[in-house]
Amino acid sequence: MLVLASASPRRRFLLTEWGYDFTVVDPAADESWPPGAGPEAGAGILAERKAAAGRRLWQKQGGASGDVILGADTVVELGGHIYGKPADEADAERMLTELSGRTHKVVTGFAIICADGDATRVVKDTVTSMVRFHKLTAAQIRAYVAGGEPLDKAGAYACQGEGRKFVQRIDGSEENVIGLPMETLCSSLFACGISPAAGEPSVREPAAGVKELSASPAPAPAPARPPKARKAETGGPKRTNRVTDMPAEIKPRERAVRFGIGALSNGELLALLLRVGTPGENVLRLAEHILTETGGLRKLVKITLPELTKMRGVGQTKALALLAAFELNRRAAEDTDDPDRVVTKPEDAVGLLDDMRSLDREHFRVIFLNTKNKVLGSELISVGSLNSSIVHPRECFKGALRYGANAVILAHNHPSGDPTPSRQDLALTQRLVDSGKILGIEVLDHIIVGKKNFISLKESGDMK
Questions:
Q1: For 247-261, b where at least 16 C-beta lie within 10 A, e where not — what string?
Q2: Is residue 82 within 8 Å of 153, Cβ to Cβ?
Q3: Same domain flag for 137 and 67
Q4: Residue 246 falls within a domain, yes or no?
Q5: DSSP code at position 335
Q6: How is 11-54 classified by DSSP, letter by letter?
Q7: pLDDT tens across the length of the chain (464 residues)
Q8: Closest C-alpha among 226, 18, 178 to residue 170
Q9: Could you list the active site residues?
Q10: Residue 221 forms part of a structural domain
Q11: 3-class secondary-structure state, position 299
């Protein structure tokens, strides 16, 4: 049985739309922000707290220890500041004023507690979407706040309600902004033995004393069409743990074809490379175990062949397939010799910088472009802490002069995984922009690469 440890009608709506049977508990979990945590880490910690609290409440009220518990938390972040639920109307107006006309980050973390033999394990992930607001007037903000919708919403707005009118663009999953990244969550639930129900989904009655939501789910904009529930041949849900028995719409390979390879989670991508699991463990669960044992993707891409082959379920063939994929990615990121490669938007430049996501120290690079924005080459300028003494304008533009570049794109990574710019980042960017103007070389953008996403200072409005 699936138990949703959340009082959110939005999450209930999404699970129902995607065909899941579940029951609801409303645990009292510690929602204080973890000190020093970035949005991804913090959302993940809060989601795990909620799942753990939900499991305790569920078992206290007679729920089975083998039931699967889902906890989730969504946060809004802008400029290094976490926006929680507003304290009052004035606080809501302040938040919306700060988000107005800017691009902010929405991060949803989820944690699933499920049985693993006689023990339990936690499957968790975070998904980030970037949301850009229209420029809002004070009258628009006051009218929206007066309607009462934003007072219990992170960031003081609801993407599934009237607040959707404020949104100019969403880069990433809109369902993630609503409250659950369903496409990523589906494969993680399946790895824990939970599939969409056969026939019409329902919310099961909880054990006596457990709080069940009675309000109807809030209306939401139509998401990407959810997978249709499949009827088992014998009637009733077909509960197996084989990937071949998954509904076609949530199999990693079919999802990659339908939505693009970028829509897959780390575990799903790894499962495609591994191809098959082991007796008693499907390939999705094997992929999750590998990511857990290695400490995540950033550490996995640095692993050696002997270390990989020591892992349960990973022989030499699987290990070499993974290492070959990592090496090809590294070489592609360093290849700037394609004369037809043109940068027209930040995503084009990020394609040259993917290897920076896994680096454990800050690396500062410059990409050189001609008058038609074709890539002439790129250079590593510095390694280490980012400051004005290490990243000198002379070094940045020396390569540009050598290549005969008309413009440059600056780039560096944040090993913490959070691409939010610091004051030092902004000050350095302005210094290099001013230096470029003197030389007649335009600085088109400064891109900060994080673990799962990036920030373009040009798009965020932080670059003058």
A1: bebbbbeebbeeeee
A2: no
A3: yes
A4: no
A5: -
A6: HHHHHHHTT--BEEE------PPPTT--HHHHHHHHHHHHHHHH
A7: 899 998 888 898 888 888 888 999 988 888 888 888 888 889 999 999 999 999 999 999 888 888 999 999 999 998 888 998 898 999 999 999 999 999 898 999 999 998 877 788 888 888 888 888 999 999 999 999 998 888 888 888 888 778 888 988 887 778 888 889 887 888 788 878 888 865 554 454 444 334 333 333 333 444 444 444 333 333 333 334 466 656 565 677 877 777 777 767 777 888 889 888 877 677 877 887 787 777 777 778 888 899 988 888 888 988 899 999 888 877 766 555 555 678 888 988 888 887 788 787 889 999 999 999 998 888 888 887 655 446 888 888 988 988 889 999 999 999 888 899 998 999 999 999 999 999 999 999 999 998 888 999 998 888 87
A8: 178
A9: 73
A10: no
A11: helix
Q: CB–CB of 187/138 below 8 Å?
A: no
What gap in Å lies between CA 135 and CA 286, rounded to an integer?
46
Instruction: Please give the structure tokens belonging to residue 232.
Output: 């088992």
Pair 127, 181: CB distance under 8 Å: yes
User: Residue for token digits 């009118």?
Assistant: 165
Give the integer Cα–Cα distance in Å for 225 and 59.
34
User: Are residues 76 and 5 part of one domain?
Assistant: yes
Query: Identity (one letter) of the amino acid at 113?
Result: I
Q: Does the residue 217 lie in any domain?
A: no
